């Protein structure tokens, strides 16, 4: 597992070194780029400390903005420091240590502040009888966007990064968070994992009835594997 974790850390660092202006040529206007600079830093995702290849990958559309959309919240500031530390690590050992620090903070101090984590992810985990440490989470697009209805070009430009993550994580179950995410993902994915979706509410402030039904269907199909 040490070698696999080091490989994940190396991939996360490589994603963090991607320049968004170069990646999204022709579609850069869909990407946030505020003065504080955080928007230029990709967010590769989260790997729980108990995740193993063959596990569950949660797949979002793109990173959400801070609650007020005006700057960096305290959890944003923490995440920014730790993402920067991983990006700037000078050797493999330093990158691995920075990766572990980032994953620990994401699971305990950052993701619990996300509306999607509280109102979409946690109900699924509760019903499956697992916790955040046992799953992985990433987004189809690694950068914050000006609008959730962004051009399909952003999915296309990001797919190489996302597919490489999926290959390395090798999940047996992928849960797409949102109808649009599921639709965009299924147009591109050719792997063997079982793919489900959870319908989301506007702003992730609540879990709609369709989302509750989606979670019930996932749990009916998969709960036995977690007993």
Give a brief outline of the structure:
The chain has 227 residues and is α/β, with parallel strands linked by helices. Helices cover 47% and strands 10% of the residues.
What does this structure look like?
The chain has one domain (2-23, 31-226): Uracil-DNA glycosylase-like domain (Uracil-DNA Glycosylase, subunit E, 3-Layer(aba) Sandwich). Strand 4 (173-177), helix 7 and strand 5 (194-198) form a beta-alpha-beta unit. It is an alpha/beta fold and 227 residues long. It is globular. 47% of the residues lie in helices and 10% in strands. The protein has 8 helices and 5 strands, in the order H-H-E-E-H-H-H-E-H-E-H-E-H. The mean pLDDT is 91. The two termini are 23 Å apart.
Order of helix and strand elements from N to C terminus:
HHEEHHHEHEHEH
Overall number of domains? 1
Strands side by side in the biggest sheet? 1-3-2-4-5
- The shape is globular
How much helix is in the residues?
40-55%
What secondary-structure arrangement, pairings included, does this model have?
Blueprint: H1 2-16, H2 20-23, E1 46-47, E2 56-60, H3 74-88, H4 92-110, H5 115-128, E3 135-139, H6 152-169, E4 173-177, H7 179-186, E5 194-198, H8 209-222
Parallel strand pairs: 2-3, 2-4, 4-5
Antiparallel strand pairs: 1-3
């Amino acid at each position: 597992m040490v070698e696999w974790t080091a490989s994940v850390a190396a991939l996360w660092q490589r994603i963090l070194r991607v320049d968004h202006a170069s990646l999204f040529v022709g579609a850069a206007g869909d990407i946030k780029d505020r003065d504080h600079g955080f928007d230029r830093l990709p967010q590769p995702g989260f790997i729980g400390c108990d995740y193993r290849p063959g596990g569950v990958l949660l797949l979002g559309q793109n990173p959400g903005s801070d609650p007020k959309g005006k700057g960096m919240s305290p959890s944003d500031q923490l995440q920014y420091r730790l993402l920067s530390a991983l990006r700037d690590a000078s050797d493999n050992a330093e990158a691995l240590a920075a990766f572990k620090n980032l994953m620990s903070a994401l699971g305990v101090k950052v993701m619990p502040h996300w509306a999607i984590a509280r109102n979409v992810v946690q109900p699924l985990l509760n019903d499956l009888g697992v916790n955040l440490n046992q799953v992985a989470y990433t987004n189809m697009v690694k950068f914050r966007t000006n609008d959730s209805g962004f051009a399909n070009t952003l999915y296309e430009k990001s797919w190489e990064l996302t597919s490489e993550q999926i290959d390395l994580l090798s999940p047996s179950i992928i849960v797409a968070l949102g109808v649009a995410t599921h639709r965009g993902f299924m147009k591109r994915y050719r792997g063997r994992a079982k793919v489900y979706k959870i319908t989301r509410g506007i702003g992730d402030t609540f879990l709609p009835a369709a989302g509750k039904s989606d979670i019930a269907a996932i749990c009916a199909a998969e709960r036995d594997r977690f007993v």
